[in-house]
Amino acid sequence: MKKLAKVVGFNRLDLGCVAAHGIFARDLEGADVLTPMRKPATAFLFELIARLQEKATVPMIDIRAYARWLDVDLPT
Fold first, then answer.
1. Which partner for 59 in 3, 39, 53, 75 could form a disulfide, CB atoms 3.0-4.6 Å apart?
2. Selected residue with higher pLDDT from 59 and 34
3. Cα gap 23→15, rounded to integer Å
């Protein structure tokens, strides 16, 4: 997390995965937050898809609802 804090501008990651621990993401204030999870790689994939769908006009599936059905923790 310390390395992420040093990166600024367009090179900064807004979402990422540490497979042994969880997902990291920027919150609304711009701080990096690591959310520990049981299935981090799956949760990362679902969160990425959900964020990409929010940018589109018509989402195909409510991926966060599907993740809950699969018992995958996603950041709130």
1. 53
2. 34
3. 7
pTM higher than the cut 0.85 = no
Report the first-to-last Cα separation within the chain, whole angstroms. 19
**Other Cβ atoms closer than 10 A to 14:** 10
Average pLDDT score over residue span 28-41: 80
Cα separation, 63 vs 9, in Å, equals: 29
DSSP string, 6-63: H--GGG--SEEEETTTEEEEE-TTS-EEEEE-SSHHHHHHHHHHHHHHHHSSS-SS-H
